[in-house]
Design goal:
By secondary structure, the protein is mostly helical. It has 2 domains: about 5-205, Up-down Bundle (Alpha-lytic protease prodomain-like); about 210-285, Alpha-Beta Plaits (2-Layer Sandwich). It is about 70% helix and about 10% strand. It has 8 helices and 3 strands, in the order H-H-H-H-H-H-H-E-E-H-E. The protein has helices at about 5-30, 35-60, 75-105, 115-140, 145-170, 175-205, 210-220, 255-275, and strands at about 230-235, 240-250, 275-285. Strands 1-2-3 form a 3-stranded mixed beta sheet, with helices on one face. A hairpin with a 4-residue loop joins strand 1 and strand 2. The longest helix is centred in the N-terminal third of the chain and has 30 residues, at about 5-30.
C-alpha cells in the first residue's frame, strides 16, 4: 500500500464525513435544545481538524532530504501524532471538568427521538472511520493515522455516552456525569498511548532482539567466521531506518579487506531488511566498554 496516497485518502475521507456529521449533530442539537448534542458536534469538528493535520504531516514527511534535514522529513508524522495527542488531552480535560460540574449541580439532560437517531448515526459512522484509520495505520505504519483513528474512536465513545444519557436520563440523573468522567479517563489513556509511541520513536529505539538475531544469522550465512556483531543502535526516520553496529575481525586483515567485509554486510542488510547500515570495524581481541 502506498503510504503517501493512503495517508491523503484517510485524511480526506475523514474530513468529509466528520464535517457532515458535525452539521447533522449541530442541527439536531439546535432543534432539540440539547447542549450535549451541540457539544458533541463540536467534538466531531475537532476530528476534522486532526485529519487536516494528518494530511499536512503526510505532505511534509514525503519531502526529500535537504542540507538542513539530511535524514528526510519523515518524523513529521510523530510531531503530528503528538499534536493530536495534545488535542485529545484538551478534550479529555473538558469532558472531565463538565462531568464533575454537572454531577455537583445535580443536572439531568432531556432528549427527543431525533437525538437518538442522530447519535446512532454518529456512533456507526465514527467507529467505521476509526476502523478504516487503524487499518491504514497498520498497513503503512503511520503513527499519525493511528492517532487519528483513536480520535475517531473517542468521538464514537462520546456519542455512546450521549446515547446512554438519552436512554437512562429519566431514571438516573447522574448517568451523564459518571459516564462522561469514565470516557474522559479513557481519553487520557489514549493520549498516553499515542504520545508514548511518538516520543519513543523521536528519542530513538533499541533494535528488537528478533531483528538483531535475524541480522546476525544472515551475516553468518554470508561469512564462515563469526563477526561478533554487537553495540546495535537503530534510528527511525519513518521514511527509512538506519542501523549502526560493530563487528570484530582478525587484526591480520588489511584495511581494504575489512572495508570489503563491512560493505558487503551493509549491502546485504539493505537488500534483505531494507535498512541502511553503518558498520564500525574492531580488532578481534579489542574489548569495547559496551561489551
Amino acid at each position: 500500500m502506498d503510504k503517501t496516497r493512503a495517508g491523503y485518502l484517510e485524511g480526506i475521507v475523514s474530513i468529509i464525513i466528520n464535517t457532515a456529521l458535525f452539521g447533522l449533530k449541530l442541527w439536531a442539537g439546535i432543534v432539540t435544545g440539547s447542549i450535549a448534542l451541540a457539544a458533541d458536534a463540536w467534538h466531531t469538528l475537532s476530528d476534522s481538524i486532526s485529519s487536516v493535520i494528518v494530511v499536512i504531516a503526510v505532505r511534509l514527511s514525503t519531502k526529500k532530504p535537504d542540507k538542513e534535514h539530511p535524514f528526510g522529513h519523515g518524523r513529521w508524522e510523530q510531531i503530528a501524532a503528538l499534536f493530536i495527542a495534545f488535542l485529545l488531552a484538551i478534550i479529555a480535560y473538558d469532558f472531565l471538568k463538565d462531568s464533575i460540574l454537572r454531577f455537583g449541580d445535580h443536572r439531568s439532560t432531556h432528549f427527543g427521538t431525533l437525538a437518538i437517531v442522530v447519535t446512532l448515526i454518529s456512533i456507526i459512522g465514527k467507529e467505521a472511520l476509526a476502523q478504516y484509520a487503524f487499518h491504514i495505520g497498520r498497513k503503512t505504519g503511520n503513527v499519525s493515522i493511528k492517532a487519528d483513528g483513536w480520535h475517531h474512536r473517542t468521538d464514537a465513545l462520546s456519542s455512546i455516552v450521549v446515547l446512554l444519557g438519552i436512554l437512562f436520563a429519566k431514571k438516573f440523573w447522574w448517568i451523564d456525569s459518571v459516564l462522561g468522567g469514565t470516557i474522559a479517563l479513557m481519553l487520557f489513556y489514549a493520549t498516553y498511548e499515542i504520545a508514548r509511541e511518538a516520543i519513543t520513536k523521536l528519542l530513538g529505539e533499541k533494535p528488537s532482539q528478533d531483528l538483531i538475531d535475524k541480522i546476525t544469522e544472515a551475516s553468518r550465512q554470508l561469512y564462515r567466521d563469526d563477526l561478533q556483531l554487537h553495540h546495535f543502535h537503530i534510528h527511525n526516520y519513518v521514511t527509512h531506518q538506519e542501523l549502526t553496529f560493530h563487528i570484530k575481525l582478525c587484526s591480520s586483515l588489511s584495511i581494504e579487506e575489512g572495508h570489503k567485509i563491512a560493505t558487503q554486510t551493509e549491502n546485504m542488510i539493505l537488500d534483505k531488511f531494507n535498512i541502511i547500515a553503518t558498520i564500525h570495524v574492531e580488532p578481534l581481541d579489542f574489548v569495547h566498554s559496551s561489551d
